[in-house]
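One such shown below:

_____
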Amino acid sequence: YEKAANFRFRITEKTAGSIEFKCKYSSCLRETGDITRAGKFVDEALEDLEIIDVHPYSLSTTYQTIGSALIELGKPAQGEELLTKAEKIEDERSGGEATMLQAANYNSRGATYLAAGQYEKALECYQKCLDIRIKICGAGTEEDSLLIVAKYNIALAYNQLGRREEALKYHFEILENFEKNRQNTERSSYEADSHCQIAQLYIDIGKTGEAAEHVLKEIEVKKALNYSEMAIADARMKLGQIAMSQAEIAKGEQIYLECKAIFEKSNPQSNEYVSSLCALGSCKYSQEDYVNAEKYWIESLKILEVTSPMSIDLAFAYTNMGHVYSKI
């Protein structure tokens, strides 16, 4: 975000490129909680669109960029109007034939809706993206990387909708594609991420044995892909979660402590470090060790008040402190 701010001189230009930059800068501001300034830059982008002559080739992309930004800012009606204009331009350009650019646009739109919490619309866009890619790629290309990406995104949308069985179905299709083509397909982050998502879904529904298997496979793939020590530790956190759900408190606590040491060494302000503190606080709370529970949760609270002052994680941290103070 600081780097984005350092390029602010560019937003004095009035071109299609400056419109894109303003929308991206707006997204950065929105992520930091500065909604007022985020809205200001999108409004400027809309004003620029009225006065500059955008090349027809760039116009659909410009509509897509501003439309997505408006949806992110909670203005779906305005955003969807521009996204519809972008879609019409692409249809006219392609003569009604499906193109990979249209698929990419649906994918981008799906990501925007997913981030805005509009999961049904995200699912619809991701499904259209997949349908177009299958139509263009033809039958028998399920292992194609673009199809894997589309299926993964559909699984994420189903998960957010609470439709776990459908989410699992797409994740298992992805893993099946990798397994069928093991000799010809390199390890992929999507393989690791699908194992990760399946593990978490199984944890949520109480299938801890199956969850543990997928965590171990996730770690195996990430090690093969030379993921960082911190990323491996983040995966191991789920093993701690599984141990806790099986009432193996000491085992869960040991895993959390090992992961905390790695996170603290790598980045003591990271979300992962905060998660390990919260998990350890929960361990101590379950053991009725309220003094140490308070210690871990206070530390997590202090970090979140600086790094994520408007986050749901901070709200949970305050709730944890309420629980522990009611016991002390």
In short: The radius of gyration is 23 Å.
